[in-house]
Amino acid sequence: MNDLALSARDALEQFFGFSTFKGEQEAIIQSILDGHDTFVIMPTGGGKSLCYQLPALMSEGTAIVVSPLIALMKNQVDALRSFSTDSGVAHFLNSSLSRNEALRVKKDIKDGRTKLLYVAPESLTKRENIEFLTDIHISFFAIDEAHCISEWGHDFRPEYRRLRTIFDEIKRVPVIALTATATEKVQEDILKNLDIPKARVFKASFNRPNLYYEVRPKVQVAREIIRFVKQYEGRSGIIYCLSRKKVEEIAETLKVNGIKALPYHAGMDAAQRADHQDQFLMENVDVIVATIAFGMGIDKPDVRFVIHHDIPKSLESYYQETGRAGRDGGEGRCVAFYSYKDIEKLEKFLQGKPVAEQEIGKQLLQETVSYAETSMCRRRFLLHYFGEELEGDNCGACDNCLYPKESFDARESLEMLLDAVQESKERHRAKFLCDLLTGTESSEMKTYKGGQLESYGKGNDHDARYWQGIVRQAIVDGYLEKDIETYGILTITEKGRKFMKKPHAVPFLKERDFSEFDEGGDEGGPSRGGAADEKLMAMLKDLRQQQARKFKLAPYVLFQDPSLEEMTIRYPVTVEELTHITGVGPGKAQKYGKPFADMIARYVDENEIERTEEVVVRSVVNKSGSKVQIIQNIDRKLPLDSIARAKGLTLVQLLHELESIVMSGTKLDISYHVDEVLDGDLQDEIMDYFREAETDSIDAAVDEFNGDVSEEEVRLMRIRFLSEVAN
Prior knowledge:
By secondary structure, the protein is of the alpha/beta class. 40% of the residues are buried. The chain is elongated. The chain has 35 helices and 17 strands. The protein folds into five domains: 2-203, Rossmann fold, CATH 3.40.50; 211-402, P-loop containing nucleotide triphosphate hydrolases (Rossmann fold, 3-Layer(aba) Sandwich), CATH 3.40.50; 407-517, Arc Repressor Mutant, subunit A (Orthogonal Bundle); 521-606, Orthogonal Bundle (DNA polymerase, domain 1), CATH 1.10.150; 621-726, ATP-dependent DNA helicase RecQ (Arc Repressor Mutant, subunit A), CATH 1.10.10.1390. It starts with a helix and ends with a helix.
């Protein structure tokens, strides 16, 4: 064994120029050279690929490496060829090759030149490939990204389930399976499916002490991302988004704000993807904005940050993607933007899939929610998920450990909530239950005679936001279950019933209500961020009340709460500076802004506040251009559905665009459209309602009119009201 181990070290130096192995690499390589089935769980950056590449170079015959991505195969083959004088030392066999190229690959293998052959699982199923591989000398099979075998893995591929059958048809040789992320459940599944129960298992620690983990509410994400990236100017980072459209949008926004960034997603052609990847590796660009397709097998050691614009579908995905930061052992900051609405979107994507797949998908999502909303050490939470325990409660390198949040005993609130769910016969969604407990008289409450229930108003010492937090944590902690098929009806789980029989102390977080942060997101519309300076916020609200009385308007008509909150962060001291505040256009700033700017200027002066230079995010030109066209089309009195069609929008999406235009202080005359859909008396009633209402909430207005007007009609009237009265 000693001689062999020595030759492995010699081979390491000879082929790769390294003098020492990392972690358990040497023992893993020894296991394969000794002919044992081997299973490797090693986090991203631990040096997994070397574990099969080196024994392949040292063994007789060709190692067959199963890999899920064509781009990944090409990178690995190029890297191996750069270490060797023989370009035939490594090849890939997949659908991207022409017939002649495939024949040349097979000739090199038959001639004994090829030590590693990378194949996609789909290529292995082709009869001609099976017959070819049966006739050659295979040293071992390696399965990269082995979590793809398991239905419980974050990237399940059905074709991976058939690998054992295909291997047996070719010939029985040792197998090495490798993955960067696998829970206990996934590990069992891989060993069972590959029929290697006696495999030698090598499990490296999942702890990456150099990574800092943080979760932020999803408010004005574009601005937050630009501010963050500018702090890391000239350094490499990856930003992950779930949709191709969002990838393009964020990449464009970064570019117009002077950041060298490129998009990467599966909708681009292979040549463009390869070019963008190369530009990132060669450091011609600093930031890649990508869907999860990017980064598999990318060995860029100095990625300094990984940002998740959208929360991923599972903690395995999150761990693997954040693992691309700090692979050189240097700093790696991992920031995820979280909103419960994103989770609801991901839950909707599961609809229509087989029931078992839906169940698994939901469970994986709930784990992600738990991670995002937990106040415990994030590192400890992650490691526990992968079956590893972290000593102590504080890692000192995550937001929860650096800024601990309070918890409280929620026993009484949870009892009240579960009683309400049971009393209303487990037939309602969260909103109904929050209205029931706060004693809010909504149209749904009237329909279902909620006012007659014992729970009605029982929790009115807290507001709806508090109860939404209790509902969400009760779902996350498994006391309640939300049925996505029935649009989120809540039912009590077995755990919830046990609690009702024998209540006990339940620690819930004094948490931020993430679901309240949603409106506005990237577009810079209204956002619920919370005031940074509570004292100034109180003063601004008093001033708004006085000014509203002077103008005989509801306070929100002047400036909405999110605009005031932003003023407490950015301290605008002139009317011109006010126009940089979200929801405040030039018109609104001129009409109502001077007393507010004057008050803030006095406050800044009296309290010796140092104003930091704020990042002002430039919009992508074609977007603002799009808004200009919408305004021009409305001036020409074109039908709204025609404007929406021309812009590729639904009517609802167009209404959101119109809202953001009027909330920024621009007048829009949509009376020509409103007159067609609503009679004059009803229009007057709704206008009077908005003049007197405490809030501009759409839901509250719909409830007020007992379903006589639709949400769409209320939106139209709110746009008209804000345009005519506020601007």
